[in-house]
Specification:
There is one protein chain. It is elongated and about 80 Å long. The protein is built from 10 helices and 16 strands. The strands form 4 sheets. The protein has an 8-stranded mixed β-sheet, sandwiched between helices. β3, α3 and β4 form a beta-alpha-beta unit. The longest helix has 22 residues.
């Protein structure tokens, strides 16, 4: 058996094989065809019935052992548009794409748990293994929910897990309530009046307008949101102008907003609209704001947070499970599943030291040493929530 966590040695070896195979062949949002096929083949080999195509490239496996409660376990499968710079033998074979967030490991851990549960069946009820596409930016979780995930595959609760390199290996962390930020994006189109750059008085310069707008938008967090609230307004793109001697007609700004409550989210959107209108009037330009609400926050429900913590504690002990983790300003589309079912999202430590590359870094690689513990967490959670007797 693997390091004290109850996962069979052959299953642990398979997890490493799966993980490194996924890493070699990264697929980004809604392109996870090879990955989905590999997942479906593995589940079928275990004797677990498989449904494919939910949410585009999603896979759901169902393992039933008698009558009883049902539980959903979710892993994300997609990769990122990053050129991998590491030198591992299993590094990406697809230029410009890599598993820079560890979804290869998440998928392998859930497959390992499925293999262990299918072999031993230490529970009574139904387990849904949910392999989700397109977590990065494209909302694959919402697509699966909209396609009827919980109508077709009922679950009393749903759980997720993510590896975190800056949490030491062997530890878990979570919190009740809001755990990740609400994610919004925005686009601002500034329309001025183009003219010769030597005669700017003949036009309305959208670049000058954008300078005022960028500065004013930063005042939302510093001057309009309370000091004990949390919000981030980040301008991440500026596009305008094509040559040296022309003041452009238009300029486009894009960015992201992160908040930890729906109330502050509403406030930021209102404030942005007011600022855009004011700057437009000041400069005599036209300023059009398009504000899109992308991902809601992950909100862990009380009973399920307790259940997730208890499963982790049974594996590593209470001193290695943090239950007051600070909310993250990053976002997660597992939140769409939590809007439909109670559940909890837990972080599993993957760190070996202070120099570990962070998530979304071109040198990042999932830590295979946590595969047995991650799979064991899923197994323990199922045993706890779907007791055999």
């Amino acid at each position: 058996m693997s390091q004290d966590f109850g996962i069979a040695d052959d299953i642990n070896a398979r997890m490493v094989e799966w993980r490194r195979d996924f890493h070699r062949h990264p697929e980004t949002a809604f392109e996870e065809h090879r990955t989905a096929q590999a997942v479906a083949d593995a589940l079928t080999e275990m004797g677990i019935p498989v449904h494919r195509g939910l949410g585009g490239t999603g896979v759901v496996g169902t393992l039933q052992n008698g009558n009883g409660p049902s539980i959903g376990l979710r892993a994300d499968m997609d990769a990122l548009d990053i050129l991998e710079l590491g030198a591992a033998a299993h590094k990406s074979t697809i230029p410009g794409k890599m598993h820079g967030c560890g979804h290869d490991g998440h998928t392998a851990m859930l497959l390992g748990a499925a293999a262990q549960l299918a072999r031993t069946k230490p529970f009574r009820g139904t387990v849904r293994f949910i392999f989700q596409p397109a977590e990065e930016n494209e909302g694959g979780g919402r697509r699966m929910v909209d396609d009827g995930l919980f109508d077709k595959f009922p679950a009393d609760a749903v759980y997720g897990m993510h590896n975190i390199p800056n949490i030491p290996r062997g530890r878990f962390a979570l919190r009740e309530g809001v755990s990740t930020a609400f994610l919004d994006t925005f686009e601002i189109v500034i329309t001025g009046r183009g003219c010769h750059a030597a005669m700017p008085e003949k036009g309305i310069d959208p670049i000058v307008v954008s300078a005022s707008l960028v500065s004013a938008l930063q005042s939302i967090v510093s001057r309009r949101i309370g000091a004990l609230e949390s919000a981030v307004v980040s301008l991440t793109q500026i596009h305008g102008g094509d040559t040296w001697n022309v003041v452009p007609e238009t300029l486009i700004l894009r960015g992201t907003v992160r908040t930890l409550s729906a109330r502050v989210q509403d406030q930021v959107e209102v404030e942005m609209g007011q600022i855009c209108a004011g700057v437009a009037q000041t400069h005599g330009a036209k300023v059009d704001l398009t504000y899109a609400r992308r991902y809601p926050g992950v909100i862990n429900t009380p009973a399920e947070t307790t259940a997730a913590a208890q499963a982790a504690i049974r594996l590593v002990g209470g001193n290695l499970v943090q239950t007051d983790l600070k909310p993250a300003m990053g976002s997660e589309d597992f939140s769409f599943m939590l809007q439909k079912r109670p559940g909890a999202y837990i972080c599993i430590g993957a760190g070996e030291g202070p120099n570990d590359p962070p998530l979304h870094n071109p040198y990042y690689d999932f830590n295979d040493a946590i595969l047995p513990l991650g799979a064991a967490y899923w197994v323990e959670l199922v045993k706890q929530q779907l007791p055999a007797a």
